[in-house]
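Bit of a strange request maybe. I'm writing a small parser for structure token strings and I need a real example to test against, not something I typed by hand. Could someone generate the tokens for this chain?
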Amino acid sequence: MKKITGCFLIIFTALTLPFFALAEEQPTHLSSHLTQKAWDALADGHFEEVHRFCDDCIKLFADQAKEKQSMLRDFPDPQNMEFYQVLNDVGTCLFLKGRTFYMRGENKKAREIFQDIIDHYSFAQCWDEQGWYWKVDEAARDQIVLMECGLDFGDYTSQTLTAKAWSALNEGRYDECLVYARKCVHLYMKFATDMQSKLENYPEEKRAFDYWALNDVGTCYFIMGEAYMAKKDFKKAKEAYENLASRFSFAQCWDPAGQFFWKPARQASITLETLDSVIDNAKLFKVK
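Reply from user aminoacidic:
Good idea to test on real output. This should exercise your parser:
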């Protein structure tokens, strides 16, 4: 009996050790696998499958994601993103689950999930195939605004989204303004980046409209900066202005009243010169 027991233990150990080793090595890859499956199911309109994959990811990795979240005071550098992959995947799965509820008209459930992201996974980011990370927290906030305000993206063109962002900014509807501006940036970032890369200086005025995506994305970053300034969120304002000045410096914005193009990046650079001191002063008064 002892020999049989001993053999059983040896066989059990041999069989289970690889499993436990795999379990230790697998989490990040498994969370990403489940997240991709959820994306695919959403694209196919299979909402129940979205929920199944998302629920599996959240159940398995929520604790790890919260642990990663607790290590952060700001968004991590892109080169460290793999270390925070579980956080990114759980946050993304929550977002996808919230989206399906919203798409089915279950706004209360959707809002609860979006709020969960804001409260517990605010530093989660999601990789976009266009080549950049978007912030899940911001997307969740946008969804809440969409539900509460009943916003309409119109025909989804960059021109329409930029016009709506300007209108909301001028009327003091800053949260709505940010939703429109971020949507434009998200949809047209790749086109704008390609156009910027082909320029060494501002194009001639007669060709300025040819660079429509660059102009609208750059303008939307400027609008975002202005909206954040109005909301006294100076850190995010600085981020928006810096994105404009460093990545879309040749963007131009048409002024329909004066019938001329002006250069948002130049205006952003002027604001940036004094923004650090504004941020330092705001800290003294405990403003964001």
